[in-house]
Amino acid sequence: MRVFTLLLLSFTIIGYGQKNVPTDYFSNPLDIPLAVSGTYGELRSNHFHSGLDLKTNGEEGLPVYAAASGNVSRIKISHFGYGKAIYISHPNGYTTVYAHLQKFAPEIEAYIKKRQYAKESYEIELFPKAGALSVTKGKIIAYSGNTGGSGGPHLHFEIRDAKARPMNPLTFGIQVKDTKKPIINSVWLYSLEEKSHINGNQNPSKLRLIPLDNGNFKAEGVTAIGKIGIGVSTIDQQNLAANKNGVYKITTEINGQENFSMEMKRFSFSETRYINRLIDYAHYKKNRSRITKLFIEKNNPLSIYKNTVDKGIFNIEDSLSYTAKVFVKDFNNNTTEISIPIQGKNIEKITKKEIVKTPYFIQPSENFTYNSGIFDLYIPKGSLYENAYLDIATNGDTIKIHEDEIPLHKNMTVVFDVANYSETDKKKLYIGRLGYNDKHYHVKTNKKGNRFSTRTRTLGSYSLFTDNEKPTIVPINVSSKKWMSKANFLKIKIDDTDSGIKSYRATINGKFVLMEYDYKTGMLVYDFNDKIISETENKFKLIVLDKVGNSTTFETTFFRKP
Asked: Is 81 left (phi over 0), alpha (psi -120 to 50) or beta?
């Protein structure tokens, strides 16, 4: 009975903490004024940003502190993504995440290194038992870095709830100085039914904005009819950084009545790819500018929407006048307002939205298959958000599957029949996606007999390529017979200009040594503090493989005082 009571009390505490967000529980993970280079919920490629990117003065090696007491519950080290990341579970049910780290605090570093050497792998994921690595609030747990997919030195910081959903750290009392109003880049109107139009045109219409003295905007008046939606391209900036960050909240009104609101407080990783339904994906791919659609279309289950009426869509009637307003806010409630005068006016002759019809009409509710020559294509139902005509064509070893202007939510499967290639050639063959300026990029290629396939969520052109080039290995600070007693690190640079690096393995005197790999620079680094060697004369060997199996081996002998 006592155990049941304790469990009930524990769940009650966690439930209470999750419902009522604590604003004084977590402290800043850096001991410097917080300058933000990326905000929570910011629009990124195929996902929302799940935390705060905190600037580290352009440096690596700043102490990173536990935002609250707890247990290290997960450690993940990878070449890409978060790089070196640590997860701390807290008694109130929340978890904090610290990513792109340079290294960990000594106790944690030793725990990880032991297991990396046991596995003989730099990339590793660990789940320490509760109590194995306990930390107290304000304790140094790591040092900031630039590992993984980071574009520059910074700390990525998250707070997740008991269901592993990332939440906005600012709602927990993490403070970032911000007195600046959000910036409006452009505002658009969208025609959303067959009879609707804006100024006699059914295509998306960019509105001319007139700046007002108070920092707000008034759009040039338009005529419209039918169901209309608004889109806005906007960013926010905080006081201590010039980065173009995401906004916190956007609300719309029609004639003084709120009909739409989206707020970046919490989302789940399972829904984050629906960002491609939130934005005007085709516009982004053509213009590299994200327009947020302030209306909800079908097949859009995002949980960020609040207080929506008619899914945020305006119904403009003939001869009536309307004033639509958009309010763009940051977390500190700095607000930029846009006023849009709309006059209902029916026009008989309008410019229709252009629809290019092809033989291949895809519906979200149905599977789609295509077979031609050496190619098979399968697009499962639920991949598209709306009906679409796809332009599909083949030429030799290349298949064009439309352009990357329609988002896919699920993976399509592209299959190549390679029966016409010799067994020797097949070994060096891979599937690549064609990019700009005739460049191509390796995509994961599954080989099964004469059928090579790839699964991808990117439309575009795919073809077969051959890689006969071996990876390159360039020693940076080691050479034959060199004394390295004063060196802290052994550095090697590796590269593969075709299919890319798949794996590497280094040994000294036949013993595995851990080399950290930074794919952005191609640098491999061994830390002599690992103390793997105890001899004066040391034989170093490195084997590097690319993604089709081409291999390069580098060997040398160096000297170092034990």
From this structure: left
